[in-house]
Amino acid sequence: MVVATRYGLYVPAAELYLDARAAPGTVFVSHAHGDHCAVAGHIVCTPETSALQVARRGPPADVAIPLGESRQVGPAELTLLPAGHIVGSAMVVARTAHGTVAYTGDYKLRRNPLVPPAEVPRCDVLVTECTFGEPRYRFPPDGELLARLFAFVDDALAAGAVPVVLGYPLGKGQEALWHLTGRGYEVALHGSIANMTEVHERLGHRFPGPGRWTRYRRGELEGRVLLTTPSSRKSAMVLRLPRRRVVYLTGWAYHPGAHNIYRDCDLVLPLSDHADFDELLHTVRESGAQKVYTVHGGPHFAAHLRSIGVDAEHLAEHPQSVAQDDAAPVPAPSPAQGAQLGLWP
Prior knowledge:
The chain is an alpha/beta fold. 24% of the residues lie in helices and 25% in strands. It has a 7-stranded mixed β-sheet with strand order 7-8-9-10-11-18-19, covered by helices on one side. Strands 1-2-3-4-5-6 form a 6-stranded mixed β-sheet. The protein starts with a strand and ends with a helix.
């Protein structure tokens, strides 16, 4: 029902590729992060993902399906369900003559204030991400993490320091901004986060206040939170601040090497936009799937599933699907690659 090809994962009965970076046929794009956006013969995604992909210099969708709606695409009926990952993110359920296949893309079951709650798909075959598919990745409740974030910001401001919050330009940045402005903080945004935030607002996703956000301007950070990208923590923007305190929001806070990886940060909080270990298990059980494939992570989760009696197999990711910094624009194939894929003469 699901095979690994030179272009990425493929569902033959649906004639559908899953988050392939470039492919000659139809590709389902689960969300607009740079390691999932596609250049393809045809693209299926939500209208929001299409708009975000265009904003990141990628191609628009040929078939834009709103969440909860179904369309006949080729030989399969496709339904897109909310994934809870970022705005526009979706799972796809493909009903075919040979059974029902569901693909989660990146998702989380914990609440994201900007998107509808994720829905666990019912299916015969489940393809699930497993980024945090190890028992050590069990995240505390978001309320607890946000309380720690707010206390960190309050302490920094009280000490006359600039609180620097690190989050990806698309997704984590906007989720953090929603919470920070809702708490009443004035927030200065790195340009790449501001660009994506403006797209969110054009799509109707507002930030509650009473705090407000503005684009970062040098010398205008007194009393403000600087919300910037992880890569910029080593840039002049951050390093020239005479007094700063830095917090990184990432699920990798529980990685065994986190202490060394993030030693230039004052605090690392596991506020993640991915499912943790228990959410992954819950999804597998609730899906009713007879066969499970794991992707976007290591083989540990599939091995754990087999140990508890689930027919599971890990599919190694194709080189095209290696994750990139979310700040990177969507790269288009070269003319030679495009010709090889049959995307253009």
